[in-house]
């Protein structure tokens, strides 16, 4: 008897199934509870929560979190991002103190700070950025800091204010390859983000960016992005799998196999990047403490 093939519904044929290697543990444990309490007590935002990060349980369980300043409403409407879009009304000048105190109480050796885009502000929120880093260094002088900063829309004076407060690593994510920018980051420009990275490097900072894979990019386009980034002074590249946060966001075009992530890591190093963190669950601040001294 010959077994007939099972015909799947059209949707099942076109939509890739989430593979086993993307399963993550639920957040539990004493350290997770401690971070949870600090975030709530100090009324802070984290990209871990706002961005639906799959590593939140691991990172919070290790006593670390990525704090998001300048509110939790973004002026951009990127089609991949779970952060709320709208007109922000939060501009809290006391936020730098609260973030610094929370980091001090956590006793972390390496802190990561990010923010939403605040395009409506003349300085893009740079003054709050600067003061946050100053306050962290004041309370925790031994703590190293990475700042994952937004696109300043070529406001280079604002950029200098953001990155001049003593942080060791400055990251700005290009997110995807050039050909997908209009679809993935409609309010951003690939070349402008490259220039921002170049200017950060020229200022003397260790530079970092992140790219999501599985949005429909080709291998050659990933290689071209690596070459562009290396040519503009990038030190550290993170590569991770794009995961659709809600049905309103872009669908996953492909789930990239871990072996391909390993291949991309070797390609990035071969093309002149100093450090490449590459894997399905890698996110911008994943293992960020490793990126301070590369």
TrEMBL record:
<dbReference type="InterPro" id="IPR058240">
    <property type="entry name" value="rSAM_sf"/>
</dbReference>
<dbReference type="InterPro" id="IPR007197">
    <property type="entry name" value="rSAM"/>
</dbReference>
<keyword id="KW-0004">4Fe-4S</keyword>
<comment type="similarity">
    <text>Belongs to the radical SAM superfamily. Lipoyl synthase family.</text>
</comment>
<dbReference type="InterPro" id="IPR013785">
    <property type="entry name" value="Aldolase_TIM"/>
</dbReference>
<comment type="pathway">
    <text>Protein modification; protein lipoylation via endogenous pathway; protein N(6)-(lipoyl)lysine from octanoyl-[acyl-carrier-protein]: step 2/2.</text>
</comment>
<dbReference type="GO" id="GO:0016992">
    <property type="term" value="F:lipoate synthase activity"/>
</dbReference>
<feature type="binding site">
    <location>
        <position position="285"/>
    </location>
    <ligand>
        <name>[4Fe-4S] cluster 1</name>
    </ligand>
</feature>
<feature type="binding site">
    <location>
        <position position="59"/>
    </location>
    <ligand>
        <name>[4Fe-4S] cluster 1</name>
    </ligand>
</feature>
<dbReference type="GO" id="GO:0009249">
    <property type="term" value="P:protein lipoylation"/>
</dbReference>
<dbReference type="Pfam" id="PF16881">
    <property type="entry name" value="LIAS_N"/>
</dbReference>
<feature type="domain" description="Radical SAM core">
    <location>
        <begin position="60"/>
        <end position="274"/>
    </location>
</feature>
<dbReference type="Pfam" id="PF04055">
    <property type="entry name" value="Radical_SAM"/>
</dbReference>
<feature type="binding site">
    <location>
        <position position="53"/>
    </location>
    <ligand>
        <name>[4Fe-4S] cluster 1</name>
    </ligand>
</feature>
<keyword id="KW-0949">S-adenosyl-L-methionine</keyword>
<keyword id="KW-0411">Iron-sulfur</keyword>
<dbReference type="GO" id="GO:0051539">
    <property type="term" value="F:4 iron, 4 sulfur cluster binding"/>
</dbReference>
<dbReference type="InterPro" id="IPR006638">
    <property type="entry name" value="Elp3/MiaA/NifB-like_rSAM"/>
</dbReference>
<dbReference type="InterPro" id="IPR003698">
    <property type="entry name" value="Lipoyl_synth"/>
</dbReference>
<feature type="binding site">
    <location>
        <position position="74"/>
    </location>
    <ligand>
        <name>[4Fe-4S] cluster 2</name>
    </ligand>
</feature>
<protein>
    <recommendedName>
        <fullName>Lipoyl synthase</fullName>
        <ecNumber>2.8.1.8</ecNumber>
    </recommendedName>
</protein>
<keyword id="KW-0963">Cytoplasm</keyword>
<feature type="binding site">
    <location>
        <position position="81"/>
    </location>
    <ligand>
        <name>[4Fe-4S] cluster 2</name>
    </ligand>
</feature>
<dbReference type="GO" id="GO:0005737">
    <property type="term" value="C:cytoplasm"/>
</dbReference>
<keyword id="KW-0408">Iron</keyword>
<keyword id="KW-0808">Transferase</keyword>
<feature type="binding site">
    <location>
        <position position="78"/>
    </location>
    <ligand>
        <name>[4Fe-4S] cluster 2</name>
    </ligand>
</feature>
<keyword id="KW-0479">Metal-binding</keyword>
<feature type="binding site">
    <location>
        <position position="48"/>
    </location>
    <ligand>
        <name>[4Fe-4S] cluster 1</name>
    </ligand>
</feature>
<dbReference type="InterPro" id="IPR031691">
    <property type="entry name" value="LIAS_N"/>
</dbReference>
<dbReference type="GO" id="GO:0046872">
    <property type="term" value="F:metal ion binding"/>
</dbReference>
């Amino acid at each position: 008897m010959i077994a007939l093939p099972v015909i799947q519904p059209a949707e099942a044929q076109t939509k890739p199934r989430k593979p086993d290697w993307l399963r993550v543990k639920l957040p539990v444990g004493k350290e997770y509870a401690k971070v949870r309490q600090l975030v709530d007590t100090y009324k802070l935002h984290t990209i871990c929560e706002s961005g639906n990060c799959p590593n939140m349980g691991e990172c919070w369980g290790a006593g670390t979190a990525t704090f998001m300043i300048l509110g939790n409403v973004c002026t951009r409407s990127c089609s991949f991002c779970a952060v709320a879009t709208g007109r922000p009304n939060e501009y809290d000048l006391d936020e730098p103190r609260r973030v610094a105190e929370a980091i001090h109480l956590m006793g972390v050796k390496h802190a990561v700070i990010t923010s939403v885009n605040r395009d409506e502000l003349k300085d893009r929120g740079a003054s709050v950025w600067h003061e946050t880093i100053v306050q962290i260094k004041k309370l925790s002088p031994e703590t190293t800091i990475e700042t994952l900063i937004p696109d300043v829309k070529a406001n280079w004076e604002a950029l200098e204010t953001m990155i001049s407060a003593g942080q060791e690593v400055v990251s700005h994510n290009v997110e995807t390859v050039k050909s997908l920018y209009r679809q993935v980051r409609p309010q951003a420009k690939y070349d402008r983000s490259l220039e921002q990275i170049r200017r950060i490097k020229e200022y003397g900072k260790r530079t970092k960016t992140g790219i999501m894979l599985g949005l429909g990019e080709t291998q050659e386009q990933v290689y071209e992005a690596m070459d562009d980034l290396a040519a503009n002074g990038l030190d550290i590249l993170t590569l991770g799998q794009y995961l659709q946060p809600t049905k309103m966001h872009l669908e996953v075009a492909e789930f990239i196999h871990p072996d391909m992530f390993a291949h991309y890591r070797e390609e990035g190093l071969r093309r002149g990047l100093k450090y490449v963190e590459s894997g399905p669950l890698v996110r911008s601040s994943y293992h960020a403490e490793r990126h301070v001294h590369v």
